[in-house]
Automatic annotation (TrEMBL):
<dbReference type="InterPro" id="IPR013915">
    <property type="entry name" value="Prp19_cc"/>
</dbReference>
<keyword id="KW-0234">DNA repair</keyword>
<keyword id="KW-0391">Immunity</keyword>
<feature type="repeat" description="WD">
    <location>
        <begin position="263"/>
        <end position="295"/>
    </location>
</feature>
<keyword id="KW-0833">Ubl conjugation pathway</keyword>
<dbReference type="Pfam" id="PF24814">
    <property type="entry name" value="WD40_Prp19"/>
</dbReference>
<keyword id="KW-0508">mRNA splicing</keyword>
<keyword id="KW-0399">Innate immunity</keyword>
<keyword id="KW-0507">mRNA processing</keyword>
<dbReference type="InterPro" id="IPR013083">
    <property type="entry name" value="Znf_RING/FYVE/PHD"/>
</dbReference>
<dbReference type="GO" id="GO:0061630">
    <property type="term" value="F:ubiquitin protein ligase activity"/>
</dbReference>
<dbReference type="GO" id="GO:0071006">
    <property type="term" value="C:U2-type catalytic step 1 spliceosome"/>
</dbReference>
<feature type="repeat" description="WD">
    <location>
        <begin position="356"/>
        <end position="397"/>
    </location>
</feature>
<dbReference type="GO" id="GO:0005737">
    <property type="term" value="C:cytoplasm"/>
</dbReference>
<dbReference type="InterPro" id="IPR003613">
    <property type="entry name" value="Ubox_domain"/>
</dbReference>
<dbReference type="GO" id="GO:0045087">
    <property type="term" value="P:innate immune response"/>
</dbReference>
<dbReference type="GO" id="GO:0000398">
    <property type="term" value="P:mRNA splicing, via spliceosome"/>
</dbReference>
Length: 529
């Protein structure tokens, strides 16, 4: 007898009490578990109504086709044909799946390109909107700032008729929310880069610095009024700018050893020079109370774009923001000004009234933190003040120096601040807001005039009665003096110092008229004058 479901002889036969039909046990169990009824009659059926039948071992009879050799060959042929048809169907399905996957990947790639293009257009639109608002904002505030824009005639700023507020103070447009957003985004980007920052492999090693010597000396300023009091380096062009007592700023091409341009216009010594790394611009501050913004041209000459007269005393420092769109000036009039480079407008002028009555604390130095949201200033009363640029609030004060704070330099690591004064150099930990190391020198009559961290944050240069280079270490580590250079000017006063690219050379200005380059013998690209 055969199973009522499969039609074949069952191996484990069972019979239904209701219908009397014979089934294969495994087949009827599966059917009942799924449907709960008889597959033939459709009546409700449970396993309790299934009775097993005891039989002897059943030997299935051989199929008729397997009873002869031709029958077996035919059976094998049928199996082979079925296998080939199944394989062909699988290949067709695989080809279809590949085509669908290729199409999906192409659509994904096209979508990614569209998204990238839209993001680029969005960022460009934001940049244009920010630039437009910076230009429109002073115009919309014209009722408050009548003529703060630069109107030049032959490089001179036209007469100013500024609206005055209470107390006779000039009204300023202020730092707008758009500018604050720009500063914040710049800060976030630079902070993220700093986490991945590594010391470049091209940085000059300590062994090389120990062998540095004077490579060249270049007389850049007038003999009648000798003295270089400030310098800066345009690293992309390897051009050095110096500010002199002779009222001139000089641009010097180090590789060729030639003077590129001499900028005349200030009436007193040029106390600060700073390159704007984008746009071929130079900003100079002077003891004549003015700041000048110079624009370079293709022929190498520089023209004065703006003359800024917002301070009432000597301008002692200029520092450029990391966006290259703004800069700050600090003056002995106890104020610092925040300027927009493109328009030359003073957006805000900040005065600190927290000092003692009758003792104005004029600013003698200033520098932006590498991330751009913190400004450090040094005062004539030996104080270092830290400012939040967004709110223009004084958030910290460091004391302990003797004499005016002559120079400030933030390390590229974002944690260390070096300050110089008459009593030497102090190092501050910005995370804990405290002094963790001091360098005091024996030359009591000569103040320390300049400090500079190299761009990698590995070395610190100090200029005073001589020039010293220290290896930067941790807060608790030992800051070793790697090299000491004597002041070869004969004046005993090195006034400014700056590391070249990868600390491959050191530029030094002194109270004679010569710019001196120190480096490794044999690596000198500039000719000896």
């Amino acid at each position: 007898m055969n199973c009522a479901i499969s039609g074949e002889m069952p191996e484990e036969p069972v019979v239904s009490k209701k219908s009397g039909l014979l089934f294969e046990k495994r087949l009827i169990e599966r059917h009942i578990s799924e449907y709960g009824k008889c597959p033939i009659t459709g009546e409700p059926l449970s396993m309790d109504e299934i009775v097993p039948i005891k039989t002897g071992k059943i030997v299935k009879p051989r199929p008729l086709t397997a009873a002869s050799i031709p029958g077996m060959l035919g059976m094998f042929q049928n199996e082979w044909d079925g296998l080939m048809l199944s394989n062909f169907a699988l290949e067709q399905q695989l080809l279809t799946a590949r085509q669908e996957l290729s199409h999906a990947l192409y659509q994904h790639d096209a979508a990614c390109r569209v998204i990238a293009r839209l993001r680029k257009e969005r960022d460009e639109a934001r940049s244009l909107l920010s630039h437009a608002e910076r230009q429109i904002m002073p115009m919309s505030a014209s009722t408050a700032v009548a003529a703060n824009a630069s109107a030049l005639s032959n490089g001179k700023r036209a007469a100013e008729d500024e609206d005055l507020g209470p107390g006779g103070k000039k009204l300023r447009a202020g730092i707008s929310s758009v500018i604050i957003t720009e500063l914040t985004e710049c800060n976030a980007g630079l902070s993220q880069q700093r986490k991945k920052r590594q010391i470049p492999s091209t940085l000059a090693p300590i062994e090389a610095l120990e062998r540095y010597t004077q490579l060249s000396s270049h007389p850049l300023h007038k003999t009648s009024k000798p003295g270089i009091v400030s310098l800066d380096i345009n690293y992309s062009k390897d051009v050095i700018a110096t500010g002199g007592v002779d009222t001139n700023a000089v641009l010097f091409d180090r590789p060729s050893g030639q003077i590129v341009s001499t900028l005349s216009g200030h009436s007193k010594k040029v106390t600060s020079v700073k390159f704007v790394t984008q746009g071929d611009l130079l900003v100079t501050g002077s003891a004549d109370k003015t700041v000048r913004l110079w624009q370079g041209s293709e022929d190498g000459n520089y023209d004065c774009r703006h003359i800024l007269k917002d301070h009432t005393a000597e301008v002692q420092a200029v520092t450029i923001h990391a966006t290259n769109s703004y800069f700050v000036t600090a003056s002995l009039d106890n104020t610092w000004c925040f300027y927009d480079i493109s328009s030359g407008l003073c957006l805000t002028q900040v005065a600190d009234t927290s000092g003692p009555e009758g003792r104005p604390e004029g600013y003698t130095s200033a520098a932006f933190h590498p991330d751009g949201l913190i400004l450090g200033t040094g005062t004539s009363e030996a104080l270092v003040k830290i400012w939040d640029v967004k709110s223009q609030a004084n958030v910290a004060k460091f004391d302990g120096h003797v004499g005016a704070v002559t120079a400030i330099s933030f390390s590229e690591n974002g944690y260390y601040l070096a300050t110089a004064a008459h009593d030497g150099v102090k190092l501050w930990d910005l995370r804990k807001l405290k002094n963790f190391r001091s360098f005091e020198f024996n030359e009591t009559d000569t103040p320390t005039n300049s400090v500079d961290f190299d761009h990698s944050g590995s070395y610190l240069a100090v200029a005073g009665a001589d020039i010293r280079v220290y290896q930067v270490a941790s807060v608790k580590g030992e800051w070793n003096c790697v090299k000491t250079f004597p002041d070869l000017s004969g004046t005993g006063k090195a006034t400014c110092v700056k590391f070249g690219t990868d600390a491959k050379y050191i530029a030094v200005g002194s109270m004679d008229r010569n710019l001196r380059i120190f480096g490794l013998p044999g690596d000198d690209d500039a000719s000896e004058s």
